[in-house]
Amino acid sequence: MDIQILDKTFVPYISAEEIQLRLKELALQMTEDFKDEECVFVGVLNGSFMFLSDLIKYYQRPCEISFVKMASYEGLQTTNEVRQLLGLDVDVTGKTVVIVEDIVDTGNTIEVLCELFNRYKIKDLKIITLFHKPEAYTKTITLDYIGFNIPDKFIVGYGLDYNKQGRNIPEVYQIK
Ligand code: HPA
Ligand code: MG
């Protein structure tokens, strides 16, 4: 059934069951891939809170979990925007950092995140995103794990918002 959020109508797109099945696959793959790694999973707030909390239940190795928020403010020259990582409360030195994103579209955010994390003395940097819009992607950075490749249409639910609303919906809806 369609749902209404603020002024927009959305249609059912990916069910809660489909999401969980895919999360199990991704987590199992990572469990294999990271057998020799010391991993820190870093969720990018707000969108990834539900994804990371579900995903990590299927991951079968010891790991650390943290969340960050991207903050941006105008630098001294008003033209340059300075971006900062807020809330990273674990020592990432020598560890494999896995950035956990809800969605990667243009890739602007992920590019900045990679640059910020590469300032630390980490062993390796990996990216997992639940959703990816290949048609909108303008970067060359490899996305190591992708939940679902989707068309460039607006989605909401499972952590993703439309004007701050809809993050609590357990499945994903697409704009009508
Ligand atoms: N939905 C919600 N948030 C987003 C999207 C989307 O489709 N793309 C980038 N941020
Ligand atoms: Mg948003």
From TrEMBL:
Entry annotated with the keyword Metal-binding: yes
Superkingdom of source: Bacteria
Recorded metabolic or biological pathway in which this protein acts: Purine metabolism; IMP biosynthesis via salvage pathway; IMP from hypoxanthine: step 1/1
Cell compartment(s), UniProt: Cytoplasm
Statement: the UniProt record of this protein carries the keyword Cell cycle: no
InterPro entries xref list: HGPRT (IPR050408), Hxn_phspho_trans (IPR005904), PRTase-like (IPR029057), PRTase_dom (IPR000836)
Keywords noted in UniProt: Cytoplasm, Glycosyltransferase, Magnesium, Metal-binding, Nucleotide-binding, Purine salvage, Transferase
Occurrences of domain Phosphoribosyltransferase (ranges): 19-162
Family statement: Belongs to the purine/pyrimidine phosphoribosyltransferase family.
Protein name as annotated: Hypoxanthine phosphoribosyltransferase
Native species: Paenimyroides ceti
Lineage of origin: Bacteria, Pseudomonadati, Bacteroidota, Flavobacteriia, Flavobacteriales
